């Protein structure tokens, strides 16, 4: 069933008409190609660095997302096959061949890998999953010459939400008043070429904090406006180039966002660029018919649902008490990007209530470096490991001494040391056993 | 109008020029020459680590020398002299604990395997030739050699047991084996001292500027701080939690203590802590800070003060536990546990606050299995 966009008047109809209007698909193809090639490069990089084994084959324990405790890594050969498939699917997506099955399977496999262990969570991995999900419904096959405008706007909205919520998350005292955590991070880069000495100064951290927040909050809007777009995109390149150089650990993120921001350019920008660089081989522009694409209610409904979720997830942190950058409640899937510098230390006290004997358990020897580092300051992971200990010691009481430094504050307890975590149930609600964030001295 | 005359390329060029000018201005005002890390790493390499390993080697030579009169004429005097030489060497060894990187890891077990397996050492003594040498030791496992094995031979399990054994019919073989252990220690510490003096101190001092071991300053600082944290973890977990029974829930077990035959468990811990402190403060305790403290104080003076206060508190509590710690462990567990807790607080300060402030990338401990 479909609705026609000219069935009526008013703002909604005009919006619908605009969304269903045909546009040159060249820009969308450029995005698809860039996405596919970046995913291929990322997959090869992941395998070349030995991360398949390090993160998914070697560990004997995995931290599960709530509701996904049943998910487990495949045996070694299976995990390698998954990554081989991801690489091949990335190339198919880039080529636009078997596009829809390829991107659908890419989404399933990529998201499967990301859901295997919370310790590997990264905002840009989540971004890849979300965009891949969105791309399943976008008409991006290589034979598509003309696409409905909503396809372009869906990507623009998705990319814009990332920047906007990342900017919104920066509107907090640590970031704006104390320039943390940038102050800590930049001071460690005093040997950075040319500007290293400057980075040690607090003023540099303040400048970059305010600049970063202003950039994130404004760049989607500046990219939308034709007059400001070239400068905004130059800003995107400088911003991501600088963060990529200063913080190499963020990996593919700068490349991904620099490519994604291209969706804000006019839909025919690749064709125009081609014609400017090589007028003799300039490809013909497709004929854009005057009639709109038909609207499919199911598709529009799915898109509305997708973006409702995308709006809700980042905002859910406001439903939790306290400083969510400390409690980490509502922190994932919310574009809370580069907001905290935390280091933690966890030791469990395991007590047999019958004999009264107590022993200490250090989780580090049983975890990978990445898992140990992440679990030491994330309460839900502290809880899951406590349950793991309890499962190995039926009936035991499990308490934790967890100390965390947070954006330059003196280390403080994260978890109530008197609470028996073995009896605490994990869920989506607030966790009363998390202690309040320490005040800044 | 002027504004109307500004084409987009001209405007872009102006903006680019302004950006480049600003960058140049920033660069002129902020070179990396005021980065204290090269000087701190050079100090730790040349003035703390290299001299500490030189002392370790020098005292190993003295230990070999002290065993000669013991083997020639074992009596209370020559034994006491050998014991004193061992204690001096042990003190030097305990101070290099935070330098568990570079040339040290391959030698670690051969020099310091404990708790001592008494049966293994006795078997090695019984099977030794009249004049045990490097060839014989080379065929033995690490549990039969190193400082703890030599400590056992010099003190024995009971007071007077060592002298009786050295004076027994088979005493010459026993002392020959002890001497071979000392020679082995001397050779290994010679290699360590030479490596630090000829190469590794420079590797640390030139981190980020041509060092083969450390491609960046951060890598050098990370190494030094991570190993100091590891040293503290070894003290807390390996040297105190284990005998306290904290890791097993079992009763206190003095046989799991370091240097239990010589009764200098606490002295070892004090020297360990002093070694870590030399990295943090610098080689000369009476001089202004020249170690990691310089970096911490520049960024967070209050944290530097907290580290200093906690160090003082830890030393105070540790010294308050009577030696030998093997006896205090059972007689006054609370005092030993308190010392352990203060050491752990000191460790946490380094691992959490200091590492976070200096942007250190934490590594998992190499001795997690302790």
From TrEMBL, chain A:
It is a multi-pass membrane protein. Its main location: membrane. PANTHER family: HTTM DOMAIN-CONTAINING PROTEIN, VITAMIN K-DEPENDENT GAMMA-CARBOXYLASE. Keywords: Disulfide bond, Lyase, Membrane, Transmembrane, Transmembrane helix. Residues 20-269 form the HTTM-like domain. InterPro entries: HTTM-like (IPR011020), HTTM_dom (IPR053934), VKG_COase (IPR007782), VKGC_lumenal_dom (IPR053935). The chain crosses the membrane at residues 29-48, 80-113, 125-144, 150-169, 231-264. It is found in: Endomembrane system. This is HTTM domain-containing protein. The keyword Transferase does not apply. Pfam families: HTTM, VKGC_lumenal_dom. The keyword Lyase applies.
